[in-house]
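The protein record filed here:
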Amino acid sequence: MKTYLPKVDLNARQWRVVNADGMVLGRLAATVANLLRGKDKPIYTPHLDTGDFVVVINAEKVRLTGKKETQKRYMSYSGWKGGERYRTVAEVRARRPEWLIWHAVKGMIPKNRLGDRMLTKLKVYRGPNHPHQAQKPIPTPLSA
């Protein structure tokens, strides 16, 4: 028995719009990661990029459960001695709310070159407007 390998047609990829207004960050990220990987399609293959482009709007309105808004911290390291910096979710949301969704989705896709390629298909925007109207994106409803 031979393994079926789908033909990955780059022109057949769809553009999807996801509204993050009122969505829980982790559940939103899991759904977006599945759309990027193509797990919702019958031709899904783990080692091929069969996913769609995903545009996330209203990134600043995503919510977190419990006390994560004040207690969860993100660490970055500059490479220098004493160069660790910690930021809370509230600080990140005030400066770059798009990064919250991008970082959560990045943690849910493969950690290799294929995952890097999938992550380039994710577009996250702060408000309700985005510059991808020419691609005729399909609204993707998600349950809150």
The longest strand covers residues 15-19.
